[in-house]
């Protein structure tokens, strides 16, 4: 999988955000048994930037930790309809690379830092968690009900544990 990463902040992470996002994304897709070559756009922005995106695209005038913008809809979360994707490749694939464009993720750097501190774990773990969470949204999952939230939480923890990314 490919992550196209843009960090529009001055913050320098102590880890390679593209490599981390790619390993987390690969793990999520492996667990979903997704047989696609996907691409995701990842933007790291600041609090005012994510607030603007949240207002523009969701009509919510406040900052948040992460925004996810899926490129496709799923009848069943995590079940990629390859026939549909192939038949509608102009809508879902990059014509230059052939990659399936899953969607866009926007992460707020201040929230990564503050939530890592709040929850008592590393910045790397928080960043990885937000990528895992967003990847599941791009795969059709949501957390509108308690049951949906529990499914997402389990899938996030399974992926992060497989990568050795713990709360320590």
Main sheet specs = 4 strands, mixed
The gross shape turns out to be: globular
Low-confidence stretches: none
CATH homologous superfamily annotation: Metalloproteases ("zincins"), catalytic domain
> According to CATH, what is the topology?
Collagenase (Catalytic Domain)
The end-to-end span amounts to: 28 Å
CATH architectural arrangement: 3-Layer(aba) Sandwich
The largest sheet has its strands arranged as 1-2-4-3
SSE map:
Layout: E1 2-7, H1 17-31, E2 38-45, H2 47-58, E3 66-70, H3 82-87, H4 89-92, E4 100-108, H5 109-119, H6 123-138, H7 146-162
Parallel strand pairs: 1-2, 2-4
Antiparallel strand pairs: 3-4
Structure commentary:
This protein is α/β, with parallel strands linked by helices and 168 residues long. The chain has one domain: 3-Layer(aba) Sandwich (Collagenase (Catalytic Domain)). The chain has 7 helices and 4 strands. Strands 1-2-4-3 form a 4-stranded mixed beta sheet. Helix 1 links the parallel strand 1 (2-7) and strand 2 (38-45). The two termini are 28 Å apart.
């Amino acid at each position: 999988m490919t992550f196209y990463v843009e960090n529009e902040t001055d913050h320098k992470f102590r880890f390679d955000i593209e490599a981390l996002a790619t390993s987390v994304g690969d793990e999520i897709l492996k667990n979903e048994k997704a047989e696609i070559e996907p691409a995701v756009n990842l933007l790291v922005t600041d609090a005012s930037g994510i607030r603007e995106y949240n207002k523009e695209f969701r009509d919510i005038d406040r900052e948040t930790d992460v925004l996810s913008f899926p490129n496709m809809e799923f009848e069943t979360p995590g079940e990629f309809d390859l026939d549909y994707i192939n038949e509608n490749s102009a809508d879902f694939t990059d014509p230059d690379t052939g990659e399936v464009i899953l969607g866009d993720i926007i992460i707020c750097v201040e929230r990564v830092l503050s939530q890592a501190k709040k929850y008592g774990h590393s910045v790397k773990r928080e960043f990885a968690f937000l990528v895992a969470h967003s990847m599941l949204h791009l795969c059709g999952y949501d957390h509108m009900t308690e049951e949906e939230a529990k499914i997402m939480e389990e899938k996030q923890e399974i992926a992060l544990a497989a990568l050795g990314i713990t709360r320590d």
